[in-house]
Amino acid sequence: xxxxxxxxxxxxxxxxxxxxxxxxxxxxxxxxxxxxxxxxxxxxxxxxxxxxxxxxxxxxxxxxxxxxxxxxxxxxxxxxxxxxxxxxxxxxxxxxxxxxxxxxxxxxxxxxxxxxxxxxxx
Length: 122
Description:
Elements: H1 7-18, H2 23-32, H3 37-45, H4 64-76, H5 82-89, H6 92-97, H7 100-112
Helix pairs in contact: 1-4
C-alpha cells in the first residue's frame, strides 16, 4: 500500500489527515471523556494503524521508523495518539508470540479495524 512512500510522504499524508480533526474535536472528546472513534477510523481507513502488520495479514508491512513517523505527526498536529499507539503496537504481541492460527485470525481484523486491540493481560 505505501511501498513507494518515504517517511516524508507518510508524514505529509498523516499531517493532512490530522488537519480534519481540529482542537475543537479534541476538546469536545476530552469534555465528554469519549474515545476518538472518527479519528481512529480515519487512520485505519488510510492504512496507518496497520503500518507494522505484515502485508500477508492485511497490513502495510512498513518499518518501525515509518510507524514512529505516523505517531510523531499525530502528536505534532495536536491530536491524541494514545488510542493509535495501542492499536499499532499492542498487536506486536500476537505477531511475535502468536501461533500461525492466531496471526491469521487476529491480525487481518486488527489491520482492517474490525478488531480494536487496545491492551492485553498476561
